[in-house]
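Data deposition worksheet. Section B asks for the primary sequence of the deposited chain exactly as it was used as input, without tags or linkers unless they were present during the calculation. Section C holds the resulting structure in token form. Section D is free text for depositor observations; keep each observation to a single sentence. Incomplete worksheets are returned to the depositor.
Section A, Depositor: J.P.
Section B:
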Amino acid sequence: MSVFLLQVVPAAADTVNTATAAAPIADTSVPVIDLLLRGGLIMVPLVALSILSVYIIIERYITIRKAAGNPDSFMAGIRSLMVKGDLAGAKLLCAQTASPLARMVEKGLRRIGLPLKEIETSVENVGKIEIARLEKNISILGIIAGIAPMIGFVGTIIGVIKIFYSIAATKEFGIPQVADGLYVKLVTSATGLIVGIIAHVGYHWLSILVERMVFRMENSAIEFMDILQDN
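Section C:
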């Protein structure tokens, strides 16, 4: 009888091991959308701010890149036409070039005949307007960078309140009582920080691009005034 048992037990053990090995491992990953939804209503303004930040960054980048153009070739063309005395050709070149620099030079060309100081002032005024256009909405990124983490902190407070409310309502302290509140607390805090970082980086990056553009415009304006003095 004992021999029979010794022969059966290993077989049973092998069956258990095979079943355990064949059992699939449970997938504990949480989809990103589900995770965000667990942040509650506080996620609505955070998602809206993230979309607005990305839109401003992309839109301003495209605008600044288009405005940059090629100032060296443009100013070379203006110089060549001015040396020839072809004022109409220079104005036409400005009209055909869609850039802040072209609009600055065109303003100066239209003021030819006035004192150089007045021409320079007109060019500078147009330059200030063009710079303001390039900087449009960039300051909004700075505001978002400041308020997004604060909104996330509000979500943290709401999460803590939910935890204590659940504990007080059930008179128990365990995972079911703290899980929902912790989700709100952690998800909103993380989202607020991520949105703030994106807006902060975008603000400074676009500001650097605008500063480079302003430097080029100032150099080109000086070159244009030199052309007028030479002629």
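Section D:
The two ends are 121 Å apart (CA to CA).
The longest helix spans residues 175-230.
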